[in-house]
Structure formats: C-alpha cells, structure tokens
Write a structure and sequence with these properties.
The chain is mainly α. It is built from 19 helices and 12 strands. The relative contact order is 0.08. Bound molecules: glutamic acid and zinc ion. Glutamic acid (GLU) binds next to helix 6.
Length: 532
Amino acid sequence: MSQVAQVRVRYAPSPTGLQHIGGVRTALFNYLFARRSGGRFILRVEDTDRARSEDHYIQDIYQSLAWLGIEPDEGPAEHGFSGGDYGPYIQSRRVELYRKYTQQLLDEGKAYYCFCSTERMEQLRKKQEEEKSALQGYDRHCRSLPPEEARREAERRYAAGVEGQGCTVRFAIPLEGSATFHDLLLGDIEWANGDINPDPVILKADRFPTYHLANVIDDHLMNITHVLRAQEWLSSGPLHIQLYRAFGWEAPQFCHLPMVMGRDPATDKLSKLSKRHGATSLLEFRKGGYLREALINYIALLGWAFDESRETFTLAELEGCFDLAKLSRSPATFDYRKLEWFNGRYIRQYSVPQLRKELENLWQEHSPEMHGAVSVENLTERLDWILPLLQERLKSLREIPALAAYFFVAPVYEEPELALPKKHTAAQAAALLRKSRSVLEQLHSRDWVWETFDELLAVKQDWEASFRAAAADEGVKMGSLMQPLRYAITGSNTSPPLIESMIVLERLAGGEELLGRLDSLAMCLETGAEDL
Ligand code: GLU
Ligand code: ZN
C-alpha cells in the first residue's frame, strides 16, 4: 500500500530587501496550504548572494512573519525557531553540501569548470549584440575542455585563493530534448532544452552556489513536496527540472502563483507591483497603521477566492478553507483602496483596549508623525476617551494623531466657509455660535461626573438636550446649529461625534478653551464676512 507523503512546503526568501506584498502572499499561501493539509511549513533563508544579503533583512523576515502570526513549523534554530530535522535552514550554513553535490555533477560530467573572465563574457555579449546573433548568453566555450586538465586548473586557482578571477562551475544542459513538468495551476509546461539559457553557473567564483543549485538541493534534502512560489520563477522551472534529473531525484510538485500587478495612477496601465505604485513592503504598511488582520485578509485574495460572494476571512478561517483549486490563473491587481477598506473594517472590530495596545506597540516601534503641540504621551494618556470617538471613521491607525489634534491644540480656521450652514450668511453663523456659547456657559456651570466612556454617553444625553432646545429657540435645525460649532471646536466639518468631543475637551482643557474657540471663529466670521 502506498503511503501519501506528508505535505511539506517552504517559504524561501532571499534577505536582499524588505518583505513585500508578493513575498508575504507566497508565505501566506504556503502556510495555509500546510495548515489545511496537515502538513509542515518550513522557513528557509536563501542568503547565498553574499553581496546583497543583509542581516537586517533576515530580521525583517522574522518580524514580518511573527507580526502576521504566520508561524513556521521548522526554521533556523540558531535564531530561535523550532528546528526540524532538516537543518540548518540558512543556506550560508550549508555551503559544504552544495560543494559536495557540485563535485558529484562534475565527476559525472554533468557540470564543468568555466574559466572565462568577465572581460571575455563582456566581449561575447557585445559581439552577440552586434551580430544580432540567435545565440544569446554563454557560448559553452569551456564545456569542451578536457575534464582532467580543467580540474587541475581549478585546484590551482582555488589554492592560490584568486577567487574573484577564479573559476565557476556551470551546469551542462543536455543539448537535445526538453523538460516537462506539471504545474498545479498552469498545467503541463514543456520547454525545449535549447531554450534554456545555455549552461547556467551553479557554483560562483566565491564557491557559493547560485539560487538554482541551492534551491533544488534543499528542496530535495528537506523533503519538500510542493513548491508554491511566484510566477516570476516559472522560467526557472525547466532548469530546475534538469537539475533534479541530473541528480536522479524526483522533483516536487510546482504551483506558480499568479502575478501581483499594480495600476499606474497616471496611465492606468498595469505592471508588476512596484514602488512606483505606492507602498509595497510590509513594514511600510505596518508603520502606516494597517492591522495584521486586514493585510492577511486582503493578501489572501490576491489570486485566490473562496467563492463569488465571501470576502472576509480571519487567518483561522483561511486555515480551514484555503484550497489550491481555487487559485486564479489571471494576475491579481493590488488595490490600495480595498486594503484600506478592510483595514477600517477590522479597526472597528477591535475593542478599545485592543486598539490601544496595538497603537502603543506601534508607537513604541515607530514614532508617529505628530501634529502641532500633540505629544505621544498626551495622546496615549487620553486614548481611552478619544479612541471610541475616532474609531468609527478610521481607515488606518496613522490618522489618529491628526484626527485627535483638536483635543490638544485649537484649530486654525483656514476655510471659514465650512462653518456656514446652507443658506446662512457669515453673520447668521456667528449668531448661532453666540447661541451655542450661552448653552455651553450654562453647561459648564454644572458638575459633570463621568469616568468611563459609557458614563460620558450618559452626560451626552443632557448636553444634547440643551443644544436641541437652543436650536428650537432659534428656529433652526439641530444640524444648522451644530455646523459652525463643529467647525469652531474641531476645525473640520466632518469631525468625530461633536458633543462627546466637547465633553472630553472640557475635561482635558477646561470650559474656557471651548468658549475661546467659539469666540475666535465668531470673530473670524464677522471680520471676514464680506468675502464669504
Ligand atoms: N529565494 C527565492 C526568492 O527569493 C526563492 C524562490 C523559490 O521559491 O524557489 O524568491
Ligand atoms: Zn568558460
């Protein structure tokens, strides 16, 4: 009876940049596939490009996964992950292995040393360009060197330590035939060997492997069953298949995920998502006040859909329903507005204490952009009262300092026309402000006792009743009375709930502050009246 192998998938980022949307999507889909099929999700750091790999990018990989809650079942033990049985999970710690397997290919005549200098390669490239030659890339110059002689020359160079100008090892792509593989999403892929870039380097002059070699060896040694990766890697598939064949190994199943595109705001054209479309790194979104739930939900929908109608999913829900059969073949377009919409949704689902905790963590790591005289300390102390007022209208946590600024500094009245109710002149609006002033004076003369937000809402009932009575008195709608008042207090005509805001402001800054704002807007309306 044949036993079905346990699913083992991996996320194999190269630490050469910050984790971006595409990478996170690959990580997420691998993770979900593992969870759904009772398999294992492996994190492998592919840091064989010595010049471009950086430690802080490795940290960014770990932090990104941790923040999202995508936990590897196996990963670099030296960095605190539960090690599996297939370590090390950092490629730079596995170079001896890659050298050993390269030697095997050399011994079997499936790879060969190349001594071509960079100058020669450059000349070759120029010549091919000038002659518009059908043959592009390496001309297999060293493939015919007598192996024994080449070996001695390579040893001599290695011994002399002239690594930079030393030699590389190239994989001898079979001259005839083709590579075929079945992609779980794209179906059968066939690629003539003649169309594979001639004889790619597998061991570089620094004796570090290239991506192709290390990736294939590790996927094999780590028993990877499925390779889910971005479609950019599809064209490497045929080469990888040839490498598996050369080693006599069975290749894993491939599934190349749909591209993630961005829309150019100026031309409306689609191209691979990149910086010119906006933020692309997870870190930027974090700093920008996006919640993990929103990112996970939205990223899950990049090239995948559960059905036509359902679009909100938590990570746990995705773990239960993710299915490769529901991947889309067409490219996905990253929609910043949609992500923002999800973010607003999840912000509203957070409780105030949760939101507060999230903010404090965020501000500890990335100090927020403050407005006017507001300080993080001030804001943090008042969050329990302020957050419930802002929560309804937030699209991202980053908006909080600006939206909350009116609790700490008096607004500047740059657009006094926003204070005018429909069909009202500036003078009439100023009169309404004076009416509101008298209401406030009366309210201030009483002692309002409240601590919690619920108690505040009870106080609000009384305040609101007073303003309603005043509006009736003046023969105007409540909305008309509120409009200049709202602008006076908040400097905006689309502010968070006004009466609650005034109650909080009275507590924070005293009643005089409220009256002062009404007076200065009234003055502004009276003096600038002709212009309005
Ligand atoms: N290290 C490659 C990357 O950075 C991995 C590609 C693959 O999954 O094979 O994307
Ligand atoms: Zn050569």
